[in-house]
Write a structure and sequence with these properties.
3 strands; 21% strand
Length: 78
């Protein structure tokens, strides 16, 4: 399978804190149990990749199904 995502696309690392940011312009997201992945689509080919670069689309078929339903022919989504 071809590599869909360029090497320059990186997933963000988390920064643990004891309180949520309250200043204007700051966004946050709660990190629940799970992992961050990068989704890629090129025509009919879909990939799900971990931050370490491992392809895991076989383990997450529901994400691949969602990618396949997108109207876009090319997409990268962190």
């Amino acid at each position: 399978m071809q590599r869909l995502m360029p090497g320059s696309v990186r997933l963000q690392l988390l920064t643990p804190t004891k309180s949520l940011p309250t200043r204007p312009g700051w966004l946050h997201e709660a990190k629940l149990d799970g992992c961050r992945v990068l989704l890629g689509k090129d025509g009919d080919v879909c990939q799900v990749r971990t931050r370490g670069g491992h392809q895991v689309q076989d383990s997450l078929p529901e994400l691949v199904e969602g990618l396949q339903r997108l109207r876009a022919t090319h997409a990268v989504q962190p």
